Amino acid sequence: MLKIAASLVLSALAGSAGAVTLLTASLADANENPPTSPTTTTGAPRPASFGTASFVINDAMTAMTFTATIFNIDVTGSQTPDSNDNLINAHIHAGPAVTPTMNGPVVWGFFGSPFNDNNPNDAVVTPLATGVGGTFSGKWDLNEGNATTFAAQLANILAGRSYINFHTNQFTGGEIRGNLVVAVPEPETWALLLAGLAVVSGVGRQRARRPLPAAA
């Protein structure tokens, strides 16, 4: 009974946490290499740009969907009167030498050039209803890529050797950047684990209290 309960717990955890791989990225000016200090065309400081992103790799490891929201970067060219903050390109970069302070090549573009979300095109850009910025989503399918493929870059992504980058008129090499990191288990996963351990522990206590059969 104890083995059965433990098996059920492990199976449930596998179904909850093992079906997909979750990654996150926190984008900031300071993450760029070198760091950026955004200004307007007249040289006056402008609000720091920043953003967040989340990524999901499916259980077959054949595609990665993502959602990213950025702030204080003009995603339409008309959210501010200044042109320095205009978004021109957005990509995922990766490579075996990539670190949080080491740049790498573009491996998949989802805005501007190169644009690689084309098999099919899943890219969607939604400008913020108020303020400056927008939300991006897309899906990097198995054979898409900029002179590479998702399959070829999967090991780099899982090893922390990739980052998402948004490029502007002022910083054509990238204004905000964030490394993709595998997310920690969700709270519900931990809750499931604790509940399962409690079940296993309860079964063990019941067995311990059960009287031994009388000798024949």
Question: What is the secondary structure topology, with strand pairs?
Answer:
Elements: H1 2-17, E1 21-28, E2 50-57, E3 63-71, E4 87-94, E5 106-111, E6 124-127, E7 133-141, H2 150-158, E8 162-168, E9 176-179, E10 181-182, H3 187-209
Antiparallel strand pairs: 1-2, 1-10, 2-3, 3-7, 4-5, 4-8, 6-7, 8-9
Helix pairs in contact: 1-3
Could you describe the 3D structure shown?
By secondary structure, the chain is an alpha+beta fold. The protein contains three helices and ten strands. It has helices at 2-17, 150-158, 187-209, and strands spanning 21-28, 50-57, 63-71, 87-94, 106-111, 124-127, 133-141, 162-168, 176-179, 181-182. Helix 1 (2-17) runs antiparallel to helix 3 (187-209). The chain is globular and about 50 Å long. It starts with a helix and ends in a 7-residue tail after the last helix.
Number of helices: 3
Work out the strand percent: 25-35%
* Average pLDDT number: 86
Radius of gyration: 23 Å
Number of DSSP strand runs: 10
Report the helical percentage: 10-25%
Element-by-element helix/strand order: HEEEEEEEHEEEH
Shape: globular
Low-confidence stretches: 1-17
Q: Record the strand order, biggest sheet.
A: 6-7-3-2-1-10
Question: Strand count, sense and closure of the main sheet?
Answer: 6 strands, antiparallel
